[in-house]
Amino acid sequence: MEENLGLMVWSPLAGGLLSGKFGPGASAPNDARRATFDFPPVDKERAWPCVALMREIGDAKGVSVARVALAWLLAKPHVMSVIIGAKTTAQLDDNLAAADLALTPEEVARLDEVSALPEEYPGWMFARQGSTRIPAPFLKAT
Which of the chain's termini has less CB crowding within 10 Å, N or C? Predict the structure, then answer.
């Protein structure tokens, strides 16, 4: 974010995995792309808690898991757009409605927490090395 770059998120629903149609032990819908082509690769054991929380939030708001997933991404200041891939008009309408779904700061924080990546090398090393970095606004032009 400090570089002021925006992201255009490709496959924001992970090929349907984050749509709410899939879950632990559930058989995939026969017409779902993931039923025959499991792409993009996703750590499903990490994804299921995310889907469960998105379902909880969606149920409370009366909206789909997919809509919550897209709204969460769109709530991020660095996300400028998402590239959706709807198969039906109903999916397209639901996906587009995500732009109008306002998540509370608490809901965003819970989604951030459940989806946080574990610290791995080199990430923890970058954080350690960057801990003494002078933020850009404080640097003076020479």
Answer: C
What type of residue is 45? E
Query: Which tens digits make up the pLDDT trace of 66-109?
Result: 999 999 999 999 999 999 988 899 999 999 999 999 999 999 99
Torsion 31-35-36-40 (CA) sign:
positive
| DSSP for 109-135, written as a single string | HHHHHHHPPPP-TTHHHHHHHHTTPPP
C-alpha distance from residue 73 to each of 12, 18, 29, 31, 55 (Å) = 8, 12, 25, 26, 15
Residue 135 gets the label, from left (phi > 0), alpha (psi -120 to 50) or beta, of: beta
In angstroms, how far is CA 64 from the centroid of its own chain?
14
pTM, rounded to two decimals: 0.80
Q: Which residue matches tokens 């200041």? A: 77
